[in-house]
Amino acid sequence: MAWEVVLSKKAERSLAFLPKQVVKNLTFLMQEMELRGPVRGDWHNYSKLSPGRHHCHLKKGHPTYVAVWEERDRKIRLIEVTYVGTHEKAPY
Hints:
Layout (H helix, E strand, L loop, with lengths): L3 E4 L1 H6 L5 H17 L10 E4 L2 E7 L5 E9 L4 E9 L6
Parallel strand pairs: 1-5
Antiparallel strand pairs: 2-3, 3-4, 4-5
């Protein structure tokens, strides 16, 4: 059974300000999470921030872009991407 991956309103609004390559990488990450779940150890600088909360880098360099997501409900398999943007402003 696949996971459902959604963007928070804040993350959705930030898409308009991101470089095209970062948006492509985010789309690919979301597709992988739909198929394989929230633990994405094969992505750059992936780490588990707290139980049910994860992050990884979408683009290295200056500035570095990251995504932060949370497992909202394990029973119905729902993941919400809560932040997409620069590393400096990430809500760790």
